[in-house]
Amino acid sequence: MCNPHYGVGSDGLLHGPLTSDTADFRVRMYNPDGSEFEKSGNGLRIFTRYLFDMEYIQHDPVTIETKGGLVTAQVLRENGLIRVEMGKASLRSDVIPVRGESREMLDEVLEIENRQFRISAVTVGNPHCVVFIENPKELSPDLAKTWGPLIEPHPLFPHKTNVQFMSPLDERNIRIEIWERGVGYTMASGSSSCAAATVAYRLGFCGNDVNVHVPGGVIHIQIHEDSSLTMTAPVVKICEGKLSSECLP
Ligand SMILES: N[C@H](CCC[C@H](N)C(=O)O)C(=O)O
User: Fold this and answer.
1) What pairing do the DSSP bridges indicate for beta strands 69-75 and 62-66?
2) Between the CA of residue 187 and those of 100, 141, 155, 193, what are the distances in Å?
3) Rounded to the nearest whole angstrom, what is the distance from the C-alpha of residue 189 to the centroid of ligand 1?
4) What is the ipTM of this complex?
5) Which CATH architecture has domain 13-87+234-241?
């Protein structure tokens, strides 16, 4: 289904709504390589829009259970944007997980093929490695496509990792290029934006209100005192339809 040539074409698959003991709805999430992952920011916004369009939503906000924790979500009446309370970010190595002694994964040096990167690692339910790139001019799809595949399966990350290449622009804006675990190069990612904004904030480049510029648009992240994150951004409906069984192997 995710294959752009033989199928519908997407960066992932959402399965739901499923019943939940703890939330209004539950959703399961899959990467195009077939692996199930914990939590997707874009996926949760898209799922919320779907629930809204299908008139499943009876009250505001709703709670949604994922493998990576519970979130609350709502469609904002004033502008149609979708807001998700994504839960807390953690830089603790044992939580992300990252190999080695228990520590906070902020601004470490990772050497790959004679190039030294300044990396930080974060979980927002799923694992992320944020690579600091000082010069925004160096950020490009090619940068992500060259180094992403080497960092994603690096032995430092026992569950592999999503990777963001991040340049601060000013105290309210950062730019990222994204390489996703189980996917490859993508043009937007909500959980990646949460991770990159958290790191920009923790490194002192930004305040707690960050516009994350991704190739596909802008995702707004607010960082609260307890490290919880609010993500707000649009969702655009593309199509609806019936999948033909002919396209399935
Ligand atoms: N695009 C998604 C993240 C997918 C992460 C997935 N590739 C993983 O293995 O964790 C987002 O908007 O948050």
Assistant:
1) antiparallel
2) 32, 9, 26, 11
3) 6
4) 0.95
5) Roll (3.10)
Pocket probe for ligand 1: among 10, 39, 189, 229, the residue whose CB has the most ligand atoms within 8 Å is 189
pTM above 0.90, yes or no: yes
* Whole-number CA gyration radius for the chain: 18
pLDDT digit string (tens) for 91-119?
999 999 999 999 999 999 999 999 999 99
CATH 3.50.50.60 fits 108-227, yes or no: no
How far apart are alpha carbons 138 and 146 in whole angstroms?
12
13-87+234-241 and 108-227: identical CATH topology: yes
Tokens 């690096």 belong to residue: 154
Return d(Cα 207, Cα 223) in angstroms, integer: 9
